[in-house]
Design brief:
The protein is mainly alpha-helical. The protein has two domains: about 35 residues, no CATH class; about 60 residues, 5'-nuclease (Rossmann fold). It contains five helices and no strands.
Length: about 100
């Protein structure tokens, strides 16, 4: 699991018991460092490419997660609408089943 995804999940949990249980479960997954050496430049390029199309991504974390998945050719399971432009314009693959 990507370190930023781990952060995003845990910071959204309000209940202490649910937080502990979720944290324990997620820590069984292999950690991936998502914001390494080449990522700042690639993230900025992707953000700027979408801005040129009139699309503004609201959270920097979403840019990092999408860029990492595009770069590593990994599908991303998401419901956040900010990932849709990455799929539509930059090659992000959705892990959601087609309906």
């Amino acid at each position: 699991m990507g370190d930023l995804i781990f952060l995003e999940i845990l910071q959204g949990i309000r209940d202490d018991r649910e937080y502990r249980t979720t944290k324990q479960s997620l820590m069984t997954l292999d950690p991936l460092e998502m914001f390494g050496k080449d990522m700042p430049e690639k993230c900025a390029e992707n953000y700027r490419a979408l801005r040129k199309k009139g699309i503004t991504i609201r959270k920097t974390t979403d840019v990092i997660i999408a860029t990492y998945c595009i770069k590593q050719k990994l599908p991303l399971l998401f419901t956040d609408r900010d990932f849709i432009p990455f799929a539509d314009h930059l090659g992000l693959v959705s892990a959601l089943p087609e309906t």
